[in-house]
Design a protein that fits this description.
single chain, 275 residues, alpha/beta, Rossmann fold, 39% helix
Length: 275
């Protein structure tokens, strides 16, 4: 048996282990949403006590729904743009490329801190068309490594809310200024969602907090003028939401008619440029 890989990550970087663990557990469900067996195999290779996270069934389902929704948007983009870039921001140890199996004309870019990319190289086998880019995504120069003249979808899962509003909007501005056209897909939370999530035991355990609250997705079109809101998903994926527990389903249904609660969790898709 090969020895497990030890990790040396910052508290922020270690948050990737939460989503990895959730997807690994969710892959064991009989009615799995993601069937992400890649996550299960990756978790087995890491020397870390994942049980310390104590994720609830509802949290596991919610994280799987979030990933699935972003997968579907990415898949739709690639169906319309056979030759394209996928820029997976803050990729962590996620297996989105393996789950989607993009075509040979797709250049897939996995972008994260150098320490995370180094760990990723040890965990996953090299994939055709996949480029690993170790960088702090808040820096200004990493985008220069990626061709800008083909349609590009940028996907950020569990990343942007950890930044301040100023840092998040600057990053988005850099992205739309670099690429000629494409889409940006990411998860966001309004101020109530940020406050609630920061009080959860799992967040307190990470010693990190969410910062950027998006109360009105349309206002981001003003802050980053090249962006155009294409879709706002506050309902998750109805076929999968029913897999949450009874009380969570009931609270979710009741919250749909109350705007502040409805936007506690959002999945946002923006266009930019002309495809």
């Amino acid at each position: 048996m090969n020895p497990k890989h030890t990790i040396s990550l910052t508290t922020l970087q270690k948050t990737l282990l939460i989503t990895l663990h959730a997807k690994a557990l969710e892959s064991q469900f009989q009615d799995s949403i993601l069937n992400d067996h890649y996550a299960a195999r990756a978790a087995e290779q890491i020397d870390f006590n994942f049980s310390r996270f104590r994720l609830s069934h509802n949290a596991i389902v919610a994280l799987a729904i979030r990933a699935k929704a972003l997968d579907l948007w990415t898949q739709e983009f690639l169906q319309e743009n056979r030759q394209a870039n996928v820029v997976h921001l803050g990729c962590g140890l996620d297996s989105r490329q393996a789950r989607l199996s993009p075509g040979e004309d797709v250049a897939w870019w996995e972008v994260d801190y150098p320490e995370v990319v180094s760990l990723r190289e040890k965990i996953y086998e090299e994939q055709p068309g996949c480029h690993l880019l170790g960088a702090n995504i808040l820096d200004d120069d990493w985008l220069q490594a990626i061709p800008s003249d083909v349609p590009t979808i940028v996907v950020a899962e569990g990343v942007l809310p950890y930044f301040s509003e100023a840092k998040a909007t600057r990053l988005l501005s850099n992205i739309v200024s670099h690429f000629s056209a494409g889409q940006i897909a990411f998860d966001a939370y309004n101020r109530w969602g940020v406050m609630w999530l920061n009080q959860l035991p799992i967040m307190r355990q990470t010693q990190e907090k969410l910062h950027w609250a998006v109360d009105d997705p349309r206002k981001l079109e003003v802050a980053v003028q090249q962006l155009r809101l294409k879709e706002e998903n506050t309902n998750g994926l109805p076929d999968f939401v029913k897999r949450a527990g009874f009380w969570s389903r009931t609270a979710f249904r009741l919250s749909r008619g109350i705007s502040p609660f409805k936007r506690m969790g959002q999945l946002l898709l923006y266009d930019f440029g002309t495809l």
